[in-house]
């Protein structure tokens, strides 16, 4: 029996959709920035409220039960309706508001600070996203997105503004034949086999894992662990400093490689005036980090 006198909490519904998307409690907890035991308890609360089991645990992760499969599209529609209601209310409010999404390693502090300086009365929020969650722009959880191109979004729906470019670097484990090189060329890496990845399909995507027989990898940290173990090498933008936190990894500049492009994306036709103001502030202050 569900909790009498309690309304269905949208937060629990969102947690469920994220677990369903990842099919794994651990990855969903990391995406939501909550502890895995806490996430499990919240899903149990939702199942108790609905009086139905929505997810089954498996050795590989989780899978939807028949009840979960039927609930998922309705849960997604409920969240979308709630977001649309929020947007309608916001359009009638006098206060200017914007939620800025940013992806993985990018630092947008300068742009946010500049925007707040220019518009001190505006409500400005930020939201850190994993590279798999850039759909937050399409489903209106964020109003603008600062990320690395190419974006897995329909170009007909998105307006992008280039902000800056970064050269590429090779990341290898210490002791690798290329670790002591002053630089390498893109041609030298041309024969390396690229590991499959569900969300980086374009040539010279921002993050590339090279190595024969490497399975698909989703987590960035798992990618670095694969490189540190000597099973693969990686091509990353030079502004991504996370590899420097691992003492067993070495970075080598890559010559003649296409640069990584950092862009600001927004929905075409979005009437929010703060998007244009963010674009102006970001172009004024965001630049490529020093190599």
What does this 3D model show about the protein?
- Helices cover 34% and strands 23% of the residues.
- With 291 residues, it is an alpha/beta fold.
- Helix 1 crosses helix 3 (36-50).
- The chain is flat, with a radius of gyration of 21 Å.
- Mean pLDDT is 86; it is low at 197-204.
Main features:
34% helix; alpha/beta; five-stranded mixed sheet; 12 strands; single chain
User: How many alpha or pi helices?
Assistant: 8
In helices, the fraction of residues equals 25-40%
What's the pLDDT, averaged over the residues? 86
Q: Please report the distance between the alpha carbons of the first and last residues.
A: 59 Å
* Largest sheet features: 5 strands, mixed
Structural class: alpha/beta
C-alpha-based Rg, rounded: 21 Å
Give a brief description.
This protein is of the alpha/beta class.
Q: What topology emerges from the helices and strands here?
A:
Elements: H1 10-22, H2 25-32, H3 36-50, E1 55-58, E2 61-64, H4 66-92, E3 97-103, H5 109-118, E4 123-129, E5 144-148, E6 158-166, E7 168-173, E8 184-185, H6 186-189, E9 208-210, H7 220-228, E10 233-237, E11 249-255, E12 260-267, H8 273-285
Parallel strand pairs: 3-4, 3-5, 8-11
Antiparallel strand pairs: 1-2, 5-12, 6-12, 7-10, 7-11, 9-10
């Amino acid at each position: 029996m569900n909790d009498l006198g309690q309304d269905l909490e949208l937060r629990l519904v969102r947690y469920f959709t994220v677990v369903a998307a990842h099919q794994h409690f651990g990855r969903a907890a990391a995406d939501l920035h909550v502890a895995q035991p806490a996430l499990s308890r919240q899903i149990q609360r939702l199942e108790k409220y609905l009086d139905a089991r929505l997810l089954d645990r498996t050795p590989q992760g989780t899978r939807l039960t028949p009840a979960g499969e039927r609930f998922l599209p309705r849960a997604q529609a409920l969240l979308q309706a709630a977001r649309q209601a929020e947007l309608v209310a916001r359009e009638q409010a006098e206060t200017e508001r914007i939620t800025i999404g940013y992806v993985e390693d990018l630092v947008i502090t300068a742009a946010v600070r500049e925007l707040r300086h220019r518009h001190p009365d505006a409500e400005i929020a930020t939201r850190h996203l994993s590279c798999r969650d850039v759909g937050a722009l399409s489903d209106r959880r964020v109003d603008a997105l600062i990320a690395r191109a190419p974006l897995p979004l329909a170009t007909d729906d998105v307006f992008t503004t280039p902000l800056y470019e970064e050269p590429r670097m090779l990341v290898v484990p210490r002791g690798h034949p290329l670790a002591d090189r002053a630089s390498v060329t893109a041609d030298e890496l041309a024969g390396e086999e690229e590991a499959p990845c569900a969300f980086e399909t374009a040539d010279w995507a921002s993050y590339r894992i090279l190595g024969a027989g490497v399975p698909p990898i989703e987590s960035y940290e798992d990618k670095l662990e694969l490189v540190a173990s000597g099973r693969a090498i990686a091509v990353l933008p030079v502004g991504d400093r996370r590899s420097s936190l691992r003492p067993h990894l070495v970075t080598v500049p890559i010559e003649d490689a296409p640069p990584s492009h950092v862009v600001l994306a927004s929905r075409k036709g979005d009437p929010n005036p703060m998007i244009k103001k963010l674009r102006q502030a970001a172009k004024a202050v965001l630049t490529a980090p020093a190599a």
